[in-house]
Amino acid sequence: MKHVKVVVACLLALCIVLPGIVSADTLDEIQDRGVLRVGMEPGYMPFEMTNQKGEIIGFDVDMAKGIAKAMGVKLELVNTAWDGIIPALLTKKYDIIMSGMTVTQERNLKVNFADPYIVIGQTILIKKEIAGDVKSYKDLNNAKYKVGSKLGTTGEKATKRMIPNCSYISFDTEQEGITDLVNGQIDAFVYDLPYMEIAYAQKGENKLVYLDKPFTYEPLGWAIRRGNHDFLNWLNNYMTQVRSDGTYDKIYAKWIQSDAWLKQIQK
């Protein structure tokens, strides 16, 4: 009986100690550090991009600034290549990914997502020469059409899944894909609606036709490491607050409904 009491006492002690260890959360780490570290790839207009001064600006950047301010900490933006953005989060190179990331079941196996902050979809830019024959993504489902998107994105997956018979070409960056489209190297480029709106406004005149009706449903969300329930709860409550007090509407109007920011990146 004495041994049983000792075992029970040890178990009770563990129950007292372990919750404190298990509950350690990224939110606590951020506050202790005094810095919120945000991972993003600044090549996705208008969510994150580099201006003429070399500064990272955009929709996600303004949201990150608001989060850091609400936490009472400094903000550090970590420039990260897209193909390594989740692995770098998992190895704690930063605390959160805020980089126009689409919420997918595949990604959700590796990370937790806060509630979506915007919903977009895939749209298509095509060469003007094929506009008479191509009215939707379905018309591109032919090997004679060279269709591009960015490597490792939902645009690439949507193209391979929904336009499987096209001649698919992947690009490391959105800019490379649009350039090849303008130069006639490919027939169409598939990508997220907000970026395509800007690309068409910048380079599409008299050369491209924009099929602007999205053919996929894609919510964008902020990604964090799994198991950080306090951080996740904080982010969701923050989003509820800024949607209610008008902060979100101002950021949306600045980056999505207006193109005044273009003069900051154009040379």
UniProtKB/TrEMBL annotation:
Tell me if Signal is a UniProt keyword of this record.
yes
Query: SUPFAM superfamilies given for it?
Result: Periplasmic binding protein-like II
Q: Which PROSITE patterns match?
A: SBP_BACTERIAL_3
User: What keyword terms does UniProt attach to this protein?
Assistant: Signal
- Domain Solute-binding protein family 3/N-terminal, chain residue ranges per copy: 35-259
Q: Name one GO cellular component term.
A: membrane
Where does this protein reside within or beyond the cell?
Answer: Cell envelope
Record Pfam families: SBP_bac_3 (PF00497)
Signal sequence segment: 1-24
Q: Does the keyword Amino-acid biosynthesis apply?
A: no
What are the GO MF terms of this UniProt record? ligand-gated monoatomic ion channel activity
Q: Which residues form the Ionotropic glutamate receptor C-terminal domain?
A: 35-258
Major site of localization recorded for this protein = other
What family does this chain come from, according to its entry? Belongs to the bacterial solute-binding protein 3 family.
Q: What is this protein called?
A: Amino acid ABC transporter substrate-binding protein, PAAT family (TC 3.A.1.3.-)
> What organism does the UniProt record list as the source?
Desulfuromusa kysingii
Q: What is the lineage of its organism?
A: Bacteria, Pseudomonadati, Thermodesulfobacteriota, Desulfuromonadia, Desulfuromonadales
